[in-house]
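Why does residue order matter? Because the sequence determines the fold. Keep that principle in mind as you read this record.
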Amino acid sequence: MLTIGQLARRFGLSRSTLLYYDSIGLLTPSGRSPSNYRLYSDADLERMELIDVYRKAGLPLADIVRVLASDGDSLADLLRDRLRALNVEVRKLRRQQQMIVELMQGDVELQTVRSLDKQGWISILRATGLSDDEMVRWHVEFERLSPAGHGEFLESLGIEADEIAEIRRQSREAG
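Structure:
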């Protein structure tokens, strides 16, 4: 059995966080010491490990309570929702990144922080010996094997939405 302090240290949490988890029914200690201290069993430790993983994935505590109460039945749905939310956030961050790059045009330090753009990527592919036809085939395969990943990759290069749509359309048609 672990005390609240031992469990808190193990997971890098504060004692008050574990008290809060107890108050919302997320992690209730299995026992009490003769001095009435909270004691956590191996099963509690396993539950805390799941809570820790779900928190690191960004799930809200209320969702974690529901997942653990339902034996994980709704976990896949919650993870899909979280992934969708992350994808939206990543798109917003990419737009912010592109905006900052545009605002910093001509800044010498930009070269150290700038992400690879479309022309940089094309230069790399050409340097490896890929012809135009091979680059098209690369896009075709990327679109076929991972359509969402292909779209996200193109977005990360700072390509406009209409051009992305056209590249993806051509890739699907050529495949």
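The radius of gyration is 24 Å.
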